[in-house]
Every structure is written in C-alpha cells, then in structure tokens.
Amino acid sequence: MNDEQRRALAVLIMAQAVISGTYLMAKLGLRELEPLAFGLYRFLIAAAVFTALLAAKKQLRLPRRSDWGAFLWLAFLVVPLNQGLFLYGMKYTLASHGALFYATTPIMVFGLSCLFLGERANLMKAGGIVLGFAGVLLVLSDQRIAISRETLKGDALILIAVATWAAYTILGKKILSRYPPLYVTGASLTLGFLMFVPVGLYPALRQDYSAVSWTGVASILYLALLTSVLGYLVWIWGLSKLEASKVTVLSNLQPILAALLAWFFLGETVTVRFLAGAAAVAAGVLLTERG
C-alpha cells in the first residue's frame, strides 16, 4: 500500500464517525416525517449542494451519451431504490438492526468484486471480512438485539437496501475509470433526486409540518449534508484509490463508532464484550487491508 492509499484509508476511517450517526438521526427524523417526504427533502438539499460544487469546479455537464445508461442505473440504485428501502426499513426496525445489516456490505461487495471487477480472492482478505463481521455481531449482541415480528418487515427492507448499495458500489467503481469522484457522486445523486420527485412529492405535500420540530429539521440536514454529500463523496473518492472490498470493510466500524459516541455523549457503559468485539473489527479491517 503506497502513501496515497494510506491517506485514503485514513480519510475513510474518519468519515465512518460521521456516517455512524446516520442510523440514530434517521430514527429521530422518522418519528416526525413520512419516509418519502424525508427522502425528498434530504436529496433536494444534497442535489443542490452537488450542483453548486460541480458548477464551481466547471464539471456541470451531461455525461457522455455512451455512459447515460450507467449513470441512470447509478441514480436509480442510490436514491429511489436504496434510500426508499432504507428509510422505510428504519421506520419499522431498530437503529442497531440497520447498523448490523449494513455491516454485511463488505461480504456482498467482496463477492460482486470477484465476479465483476476481477478482484482476487485470498484467505487473508476473506478471513478479515468474516472476522470483522463477527466482531460486529459480538458488539451488537451485547446490546441485546431482538428479532421480532415488529422488526421483521424493516429488517427485510434494510437487507435489500444493502444489496442495492453493494451494486451501486460495484457500478460506481467501474465508471470511476472515466469520470472523477465528484462528478460520479454529484451526477448520480442529482439524477436520483429527479427520479425520486414523482414518488416523494405527494407525501411531502401531505406531511403534517406542525408535528416537525427542530429535531426533524436537524435529522434532514444531517443526512443531507453529512451523510449524502460528505459521506457519499468520500465513499466514491475512496473507491477511486482502493479496491472495493477494502473500502467497504470499513463499514464494519460504524456500529463500533456508534457505540463509542453513545458512551461519550450519553454515558452508556463500555463492556468487556464490546472491547472484544472492537478488537475483532480492528483485526478484520487490518487483515483485509493487508490481503
């Protein structure tokens, strides 16, 4: 691993601290907003920011005609499909369940990378992914995750959302050979927002805004600016520097970092099981990067 790749890895690790707050903020916002209305405002803000960034960088243009199909698929995967499933899933399940299922992203991406990107499978890389996921399970089991009929619907939606995110990651990795990360992220999210408008506009018009507090507004801003703009941009940028499986294994850090934030801000106890799980995740990340 060269210096540029080490820097990319460091930035991606720092970005996980921001993304780790997504599940908590989504749950708070969905108490006050309908999922599709939430998504419409989130991606309206994100699309506006990316349009301004692309204009400032003089990259505000349509993709080449031969790549329109790829960008339309990217847009559909990342906004209407992934986020529609994610927001509805988070409405019906627990934040810890969302973190758990998104921790399976490296496994899905690893398999797809071997099939479509020609990444080589080896025991160290596969072992790192399995070890990291085992660490996540250990930590989340300490929080007494309960699978029930009430959460089963949301769990199923989140799991499908993870599959669409894995597909977005693989397709995004392939198109990065022809476009810079800012353009790929901005164009896919902006096109995705336009696709989302027909399904999100009516719920947004029907939304009871008298029930929306500053917490709801803050949750939209968090997911729009920190998750969609900063998080997605860093994700795609990282894919331009590292193998897809090495980027996605860092998502295993999200439940760990979320627990650390809860300990720091809410005074929740850090147990021996948590420390053991955190060590397993760290070892899994290291093994995958070395592999």
Sum up the overall morphology in one term: globular
| Beta content | under 5%
Let me know the number of strands: 0
- Helix/strand/pairing category: mainly alpha
Helix content: over 70%
The residue ranges in which pLDDT falls below 50 over 5 or more consecutive positions are none
Return Rg in Å: 18 Å
Sketch the topology as an H/E string, one letter per element: HHHHHHHHHHHHH
User: What oligomeric state do the depicted chains represent?
Assistant: single chain
* Secondary structure tally, helices: 13
Mean pLDDT: 83
- Biggest β-sheet strands, sense, barrel: none
Count structural domains.
1
User: What is the distance, rounded to the nearest whole angstrom, between the alpha carbons of the first and last residues?
Assistant: 10 Å
Please give a structural write-up.
- This protein has one domain (3-290).
- Helices cover 80% and strands 0% of the residues.
- The protein contains 13 helices and no strands.
- The longest helix has 28 residues, at 214-241.
Structure summarized in a few sentences:
With 291 residues, the chain is mainly α.
Features:
291 residues; mainly alpha; single chain
